[in-house]
Specification:
By secondary structure, this protein is an alpha/beta fold. It is built from ten helices and ten strands. The strands form two sheets. A seven-stranded parallel β-sheet has the order 5-4-3-6-7-8-9, sandwiched between helices. Strands 1-2-10 form a three-stranded mixed β-sheet. Helix 2 (about 35-40) links the parallel strand 1 and strand 2. Helix 3 (about 50-65) packs across helix 5 (about 105-115). The protein starts with 8 loop residues before the first helix and ends with a strand. The chain binds glyoxylic acid (GLV). Glyoxylic acid binds near residues 25, 27, 234 and 235.
Length: about 270
């Protein structure tokens, strides 16, 4: 299944002989795990192989949002560029800024590691001090991270606890010069509240790869020039998608052959 397929009780009831669902994604919020568990259905995912691709795309959004690449590209294509000007499309410095990572899992760590090349300070939230965290990174509560970061990047899975983790209150506690980056899952952010903050410029900008109602865009977001919008491309490299396909197949074969699959979510 892909992350766009809702795999719920209705699907399971229509497929009484189903043994295993191999999700072609690391996130598995599209699958009803309670319903799967009740029926003894195994669920697997594709962790690890897409970490670097997703971290790279997160950096594309960080750089693209802070340096206004979407607006620059539109200016060129629409024939509106009249030549170099000292105050044209001024953005924010990335080098030396403070990066806040919400959720220091595999992808959050890979994004944080890349920040060393930009001489950035790194703050993070996590449920526990992450043993793999660089000692230079500082674990802080979410409120402190939002207040102190120049760039806030989301790397939590979508669960009941993380749905709308970033809403109007959280956005209002960010710096007016700060950027929000989301390559995790759309519903982690209250999109209407984000569009309002972008429109009112209570934050400087956003870089988004994921949306609350994919593939539908919140109309107010489309109107925000300071939002850089990508169509859920986090893992979209040729080699990564091939690795994801292979490990999804390995997971299926393992279950069908009675072995424990390499990437068991439940079962
Ligand atoms: C992509 O969004 C994934 O969860 O793999």
């Amino acid at each position: 299944s892909t992350l766009a397929d809702t795999i719920d009780a209705e699907v399971f009831d229509a497929a009484p002989e189903l043994n295993v669902v191999a999700n072609y994604a690391v996130g598995y919020n599209n699958i009803d795990l309670v319903a799967a568990r009740e029926r003894g259905i195994v669920v697997t995912n594709t962790p690890g192989v897409l970490t670097d691709a997703t971290a790279d795309l997160t950096w594309a959004l960080i750089l693209g949002a802070c340096r206004r690449l979407g607006e620059g590209d539109r200016l060129m294509r629409e024939g509106r560029w009249t030549g170099w000007a000292p105050t044209q499309l001024l953005g924010a410095d990335v080098a030396g800024a403070t990066l806040g990572i919400v959720g220091l899992g595999r992808i959050g760590r890979a994004v944080a590691r890349r920040a060393a090349g930009f001489g950035m300070g790194v703050l993070y939230t996590a449920r526990h001090v992450a043993p793999e965290a660089d000692p230079a990174w500082r674990m802080v509560p979410l409120a402190a991270l939002l207040a102190e970061s120049d760039i806030v990047s989301l790397h939590v899975p979508l669960t009941a606890e993380t749905r709308h983790l970033i809403g109007a209150r959280e956005l209002s506690s960010m710096k007016p010069t700060a950027y929000l980056i989301n390559t995790a899952r759309g519903p982690v952010v209250d999109e209407a509240a984000l569009a309002a903050a972008l429109h009112a410029r209570t934050i400087a900008g956003a870089g988004l790869d994921v949306y609350e109602q994919e593939p539908t865009l919140h109309p107010a977001l489309l109107a925000c020039e300071n939002a850089l919008l990508l169509p859920h491309l986090g893992s979209a490299t040729t080699a990564t998608r091939e690795r994801m396909g292979r490990i999804a197949a390995d997971n299926l074969l393992a279950v069908l052959e009675g072995r424990t699959p390499p990437n068991l979510v439940i079962g």
